[in-house]
TrEMBL record, chain A:
Organism field: Physcomitrium patens
Biased composition (Basic and acidic residues): 839-866, 876-891, 934-963, 981-1002, 1014-1030
An example molecular function term from Gene Ontology annotations: RNA binding
Annotated region (Disordered), positions in chain: 835-1052
Protein's recorded name: SURP motif domain-containing protein
Basic residues composition-biased segments: 1003-1013, 1031-1041
GO biological-process terms attached to the record: mRNA processing
InterPro entries the UniProt entry points to: DUF1604, Surp, SWAP/Surp_sf
Bias type Polar residues, positions: 912-925
Entry's Gene Ontology cellular component terms: nucleus
Every SURP motif domain range: 417-461
Encoding gene (name): LOC112283852
PANTHER family: G PATCH DOMAIN-CONTAINING PROTEIN 1
TrEMBL record, chain B:
GO cellular component: catalytic step 2 spliceosome; cytoplasm; nucleoplasm
Phylogenetic lineage: Eukaryota, Viridiplantae, Streptophyta, Embryophyta, Bryophyta
Record localization: Cytoplasm
Family: Belongs to the WD repeat MORG1 family.
Keyword tRNA processing: no
Domain of life: Eukaryota
GO molecular function terms listed in the Swiss-Prot or TrEMBL record: MAP-kinase scaffold activity
Record GO biological process: mRNA splicing, via spliceosome; positive regulation of miRNA transcription
Protein name per UniProt: Uncharacterized protein
Keywords, in A-Z order: Cytoplasm, Repeat, WD repeat
Length: 1052, 301
């Protein structure tokens, strides 16, 4: 904190943070003063010994760069622009040791190696090179007719370098190597010989060398020619003497086929040499040797045709467009040289060895030749036809003239031998005869073989046997198509199942044929299979095959109408027509039968034929002709499927139906065919056609579900309705029929009423809807009429209930008005838009007896009564027959039966139509609508829509009570709306009414109590129902309390 | 028979020229004073055939116009054609009131219902569609798609829609009873016509046969043969007395058969090419024929 000099001073408090800390410069100074501890570590700086900042950038701790302690530049570390090496990746980078040398190493290296400066160029090459480069540069600058450095290459620089001049002075000749001559001296006589050769070669190849140049030898560009090794001493390649190399091939200019494979170059050249005039130079001859070894097919390709796709060229540099033929030189043709030498070179010289394909050596021994066999010589008399024995040779055998008939020998033993051998020989061929001849040489019994007695007979016998075999063979071939002809006589095939027999067994229709099939039933197989089995077979297989003809034919044998010949003949004709296929033509009208009789007869025929096809035996069939006697099996089978009918013949209903249909089909047989389907016109279409919608009031077809879930949702409703309809099947059917589809029944009111009554007695009770559902809907909003409001509970909370009832009343007034309008419109013949009606389920329950079904809950009863009191005489639509019908708007046809109470769901109507307010008057529904209109005439009737009670009593006759079910949601909404509307308007009237109502309610209570006592004994209500009602009651109570509490807060 | 044949129109009373290209249909209006024709030239034409006057041309279709219908009050037209559109025209102004689009293929036939409140059309999309002329709906009132092949012809009674189809059926849709009656003729039905008493259906089939069906029973009452009709859509109709059956032929002739006997009563060369349509005057013995040769001819006795 404090320095020593300041130790005397005492500081209190925290020292001020001076600007020293804030200014970096000053901070540095402060640091120097040892105040670093005051600086936070992240503010501290690293400095070197000289106090320079050491790190720069990257949060001041990163790079050591910049000014003096940097990469060396003033700018410090500055990243260079990135240059991609991607493009130059393929470029080869030649690296030498020199590149990796340090400076001192380089200096050392330079010191060791002598360099020639260009102006003191010893060999002139560098000077030439330089000049050439200069020229190239110039060419690059100036345009020229012939691009490239060609011209400059031709024009060799004139001036000679100082070194060359010096050398010349020393006696050097151009093209010679500079160096010691000891190798040459050591060479001796061999070299002498070579020199001679060289001079020869020089003469020969002088044409290739420009006359101006002294250099004589045509040497390749690279100095590694193997066979020139020996010469290298005298002919250095170092001197880049310019050799004119005229272009003789057809490659593109500048294209070097041997760029990457120099070893082939020489071969090529050798070949050219050879072509141009072979035998010249030994080296070339040597070079010639090689290709023939490692490329055996060299030059064998078609000349002038290029490279075929399938030609596998050993080397791609082969001059494809060689002209003319080539030939291989197998031998070295030099004669002035001993042959051992080059051959030795060829085989043993590692260099030469390497020139064969790498990884291969030359074979020591030539591969063995595979033996080649010449094709056999065909004898001149060879015939190309092979003659088979039996049965193909049968023609030949048959053609053989029959030997004369001979008497069998007297000796029966020998006769037997002869016959046996003859049959054997006939079967096995003449070879057997020879064998037996061999064997039985000594046997006197076989003397007939050798021309002895009995030979004639043997020959004859043999011939006979052969003939027989031939015949058999033929028949075997023809077995399928010539079955019938030989079926009688050829017993040896009868054991096999013939095709036609099999087909018959399987019930196939045979091919059209002659009358031969008459005896078929007597054929062995048919006789073997028992009649029952056959029938079973046919019946079992008849489903897989077309109808059998055999059945028809056997039916021909069988005569079901023996006593009526005409009929029998017609039956046969019918069968024939049936089996021949096609359209059956009715039996000619000559029989004098009426149309009805004929069709009856045809039906009979059909039935019989069918029975027969199914394999009924005649005795069973006889039942058919005896009416009234059921075929036991059939009855047993069909009895389970069909109920007994009043048809006299028990040919079964199924048979009848199927048969009739078939007969009808056949009778109709031609177009036009009429069909009738149900079709639902769109309501709007009906409207536009000014027609009544025949489907009005019926459930609309389900819209096509767009998704699975939707279909699920949509399906629930019909299912529910089905469930409800299902209860007593007959009942359900009846109502559906009568109400929806069959207007006839409803037309006759009398019958309808009777039937309904009958049914009513059968109907079982249907469990009611869960109460709390609609209670949840309705009790909340007090849609009850004031008269119908629950008196018992309401007494406590009279005020609130009154209000609600009031609102409901107004709503109902509207409905009433609507209804009134409608009925008025009806009278005037006008269409009045109907006020939207509740769409929930509703049903009317009628109670036959006033005494029955009264064991309802107190308040329910009350309500019923009160309702009746208010509107009893006019409200309920009834007809004389003691039941009333009601327009039912639920989509479900519902029937309820409770304690002998029928809830008759009379009519369904979809809400769409009802909302449209279309009054339907189609004659089909007249009866129903008669009822409906009656109801509509009553202005008070719609009150019941708002009634959520489940029972109401009709007192007009004292007989019946009505139970109105399930009010709707719509009414509820109406009520709530009306509540808000009418609240204020009717504030005054309320007060008065309230008083009245209270009085009424008191009355009702008393009445109700009385009735309850009276009816609860009589009513046959089950405990279950009671308990359910109780439960409902409880529910309602709870609900009411809830609503009251809520409404109590809101209402004034 | 000769007397009966004498009363049949066979003399050319007028020739209406104007269509460029084939005339595909010609229709008398309800009282027979005017006629309408449509053709391959994408136009509808209104004529007074008795005076031989061309009154108006209605252009608006994009393709050939195949059928035209006139409302009974002569105020509206509707036409249909290869452009899959059903156009609803105002006769006097010649404007298109509405375009009904919905058919997925060419529309072959169109009819107004009795009070021109709805249009019924049948087309190559195997459907019959009902369109509303009263409201502003553009989608069909109803689509009947029980057909298995394209619908060639539509006829209406007061309560029924009758449609013939290439699938060989004549289907009657009874709106009042909600029934569909299918009469399978086994042959592609080319056109359907109704007798004036509406008791019979005349269905011309593509096997060069015209069949007369009893509507009540569905029985075939008579067949009429002799003409040629194998490839073209051609009309046939009954005379106004319901005594004869008239049909064109692909060889340009017109044939008359006795309705009851089915005997060919008369035939004459009417056109140079296929007679595409015949329309009989509702009250007089007067007939219009249209042809591929581009002319419409009126025939009188």
């Amino acid at each position: 904190m404090a320095g020593d000099d300041e130790s005397v001073c005492v500081y209190y408090g925290t020292p001020l943070v001076s600007e020293v800390e804030l200014n970096p410069r000053k901070r540095k100074a402060a640091l120097d003063q040892g105040k670093a501890c005051q600086v936070a570590p992240w503010n501290q700086e690293v400095t070197d010994s000289e106090g320079r900042r050491r790190f720069h950038g990257a949060f001041s701790g990163g790079f050591s760069a910049g000014y003096y302690n940097t990469v060396g530049s003033k700018e410090g570390w500055a990243p260079t622009a990135f240059t991609s090496s991607r493009q130059s990746r393929a470029d080869k980078k030649s690296q030498a040791a020199y590149d990796f040398m340090d400076e001192d190493e380089k200096a050392e290296y330079d010191a060791k190696n002598l360099e020639v400066r260009s102006d003191f160029d010893t060999f002139g090459s560098t000077a030439a090179e330089y000049a050439r480069r200069q020229a190239a540069k110039e060419i690059g600058d100036r345009p020229s007719a012939i691009p490239g450095p060609l011209i400059d290459e031709i024009i060799v620089p004139v001036n000679e370098s100082t070194g060359v001049k010096l050398l010349r002075l020393m006696g050097w000749r151009g093209g010679r190597q500079i160096g010691p001559k000891h190798i040459a001296a050591a060479s001796g006589a061999k070299r002498e010989a070579r020199k001679a050769m060289m001079s020869l070669a020089q003469n020969e190849s002088s044409s290739k060398i420009l006359p101006g140049t002294e250099e004589s030898l045509a040497v390749g560009e690279d100095g590694q020619l193997a066979d020139e090794e020996d010469f290298d001493i005298e002919v250095p390649t170092a001197t880049p003497n310019f050799v004119m190399n005229p272009k003789k091939d057809l490659y593109g200019l500048g294209f070097d086929p041997f760029k990457d494979a120099p070893e082939f170059r020489e071969r090529k050249r050798a070949r050219e040499e050879d072509r141009s005039g072979h035998g010249g130079w030994r080296g070339h001859a040597l070079a010639l040797k090689r290709p023939s070894l490692f490329r055996p097919n060299a030059g064998k390709m078609g000349a002038g045709f290029g490279i075929g796709a399938l030609e596998d060229l050993g080397d791609e540099d082969e001059d494809v467009y060689d002209q003319g033929m080539e030939f291989e030189v197998q031998e070295l043709e030099d004669d002035d040289k001993p042959p051992e030498k080059p051959q030795k070179l060829l085989l043993e010289d590692p260099l030469h060895k390497g020139s064969t394909l790498p990884g291969f050596h030359l074979a020591k021994e030539p591969p063995k030749k595979k033996p080649w066999f010449s094709p056999p010589i065909i004898p001149k008399n060879f015939s190309f036809v092979h003659i088979f024995n039996n049965p193909l040779c049968s023609e030949r055998l048959q053609d053989r003239p029959a030997p004369p008939a001979a008497q069998p020998p007297d000796d029966p033993e020998q006769c037997k031998y002869i016959e046996g051998l003859a049959s054997f020989v006939a079967k096995s061929g003449p070879r057997l005869e020879e064998i037996s001849k061999e064997k039985q040489k000594e046997n006197p019994m076989f003397g007939f073989l050798f021309g002895g007695p009995g030979h004639d007979y043997y020959v004859r016998r043999l011939w006979e046997e052969e003939q027989k075999l031939v015949k058999d063979g033929k028949q075997q071939i023809q077995i399928d198509n010539a079955q019938n002809e030989k079926a009688g006589k050829q017993s040896n095939f009868s054991s096999r199942l013939a095709a036609n027999e099999r087909g018959r067994m399987l019930g196939e229709i045979p091919l059209p044929k002659g009358p031969a099939s008459a005896q078929r039933l007597d054929s062995p197989v048919a006789s073997m299979v028992g009649a029952d089995d056959r029938a079973r077979l046919q019946s079992a297989l008849s489903s897989t095959f077309t109808s059998t003809s055999s059945a028809g034919e056997s039916a021909g044998n069988f005569q079901p109408f023996k006593n009526d010949l005409a009929k029998q003949s017609r039956f046969e004709q019918f069968l024939k027509g049936k089996t021949t296929g096609g359209l059956w033509k009715p039996v000619s009208g000559g029989s004098g039968l009426s149309e009805a009789e004929r069709s009856q007869e045809i039906f009979e025929f059909e039935t019989i034929a069918r029975m027969q096809q199914e394999g009924l035996t005649p005795d069973k069939r006889s039942h058919l002709n005896a009416p009234g006697k059921p075929v036991p099996e059939l009855v047993a089978v069909m009895g389970s499927r069909f109920t007994a009918a009043g048809i006299e013949t028990t040919t079964t209903l199924a048979e009848a139906a199927v048969g009739k249909e078939l007969v009808l089909r056949e009778l109709v047989k031609k177009y036009p065919i009429r069909e009738e389907n149900s079709w639902r016109p769109a309501p709007l279409l009906c409207k536009r056609f000014d027609l009544l919608d025949p489907f009005a009031g019926k459930a609309p077809p389900l819209p096509k579900p767009r998704s699975r879930t939707e279909s699920f949702i949509l399906l629930t409703n019909p299912v529910e309705s089905n469930l409800e309809l299902r209860h007593p099947p007959s009942q359900a059917n009846f109502t559906q029929k009568s109400v929806i589809q069959d207007p006839k029944i409803s037309e006759s009111d009398e019958r309808y009423g009777e039937e309904l009554e009958q049914i009513n007695e059968k109907i079982e009770p249907i469990p009611e809807r869960p109460v709390d559902l609609y209670k949840a809907i309705f009790s909340d909003d007090s849609d009850d009429d004031d008269e119908l409001a629950e008196p018992a509970q309401l007494s406590a909370h009279a005020g609130d209930a009154m209000k609600r009832a009031e609102a409901a009343n107004t709503a109902l007034n509207r409905l009433v008005a609507g209804d009134f309008l409608e009925s008025l419109g009806k009278e005037l013949g006008l269409e009045v838009p109907e006020i939207t009606r509740p769409t929930g389920d509703r049903a009317e329950v009628k109670e036959r007896d006033g005494g029955l079904g009264r064991s309802k809950n107190n308040d329910e009863y009350r309500r019923g009564e009160s309702k009746l009191q208010s509107s009893a005489p006019v409200e309920v639509a009834r007809d004389q027959r003691g039941f009333s019908m009601r327009h039912e708007k639920s989509p479900l046809g519902r029937q309820l039966h409770k304690n002998g109470t029928v809830v008759e769901d009379v009519y369904r109507r979809d809400s769409q139509q009802s909302s449209r307010g279309k009054v339907l008057q189609s004659d089909t529904n007249e009866a129903l609508f008669g009822v409906k209109t009656r109801r509509l005439d009553v202005p008070d009737a719609p009150r019941r829509w708002g009634d959520d009670t489940s029972s109401a009593r009709h007192t007009a006759t004292g007989k019946e009570a009505k139970v109105s079910h399930v009010p709707s949601t719509v009414s509820r909404y109406d009520d709530t709306e009306s509540e808000s509307d009418s609240d204020k308007e009717k504030a005054l009237a309320k007060q008065i009414r309230r008083e009245e109502r209270r009085l009424k309610r008191e009355k009702e209570k008393r009445k109700h109590k009385h009735r309850k006592n009276h009816s609860s004994d009589k009513s046959g209500k089950t405990k279950k129902e009671k308990s359910r009602e109780k439960e409902r009651h409880h529910h309602r109570k709870r609900k009411r309390q809830r609503t009251e509490s809520s409404s109590g807060t809101s209402s004034p | 028979m000769a007397g009966a044949a004498a009363g049949l129109p066979s003399k050319e009373a007028a020739i209406l020229k104007g269509h460029e290209g084939a005339v595909l249909a010609v229709r008398f209006n309800k009282d027979g004073k005017y006629c309408l024709s449509c053709g391959k030239d994408r136009s509808l034409r209104l004529w007074n055939p008795h005076k031989g006057i061309h009154i108006k041309t209605y252009n608006g279709h994009a393709r050939d116009v195949r059928d035209v219908a006139v409302s009974s009050d002569n105020s509206k037209l509707s036409s249909c054609g290869g452009d899959r559109q059903l156009l609803y025209w105002d006769v006097s102004s010649g404007r298109i009131i509405r375009k009904f689009q919905g058919h997925d293929a060419e529309i072959n036939s169109v009819k107004f219902n009795e009070y021109a409140a709805a249009l019924i059309s049948g087309g190559g999309d195997r459907s019959v569609r009902a369109w509303d002329c009263r409201s502003n709906r553009f989608d069909p009132i109803q689509v009947i798609d029980t057909f298995k092949d394209s619908v060639t012809s539509v006829q209406l009674t007061k309560t029924e829609i009758i449609a013939g189809s290439v699938d060989g059926t004549v289907r009657t849709f009874d709106i009042r009873n909600g029934r569909e009656i299918v009469d399978d003729l086994g042959q592609s039905v080319n056109s359907v016509a109704l007798s004036y008493d509406e008791g019979c259906i005349l269905a011309s089939c593509l096997d060069s046969t015209i069949r007369l069906l009893d509507r009540a029973s569905g029985e075939q009452l008579q067949e009429y043969k002799g003409h040629e009709n194998k490839a073209f859509k051609m009309d046939s109709c009954l005379t106004n007395t319901d005594a004869h059956v008239v049909s064109g032929s692909e060889d340009g002739r017109v044939f008359y058969w006795d309705l009851v006997d089915g005997v060919l009563v008369k035939s004459f060369k009417a056109h140079a090419a296929v007679v595409t349509s015949v329309s009989y005057h509702p009250t007089e013995s007067c007939m219009l024929t249209s042809s591929v040769d581009g002319t419409i001819r009126m025939w009188k006795t």
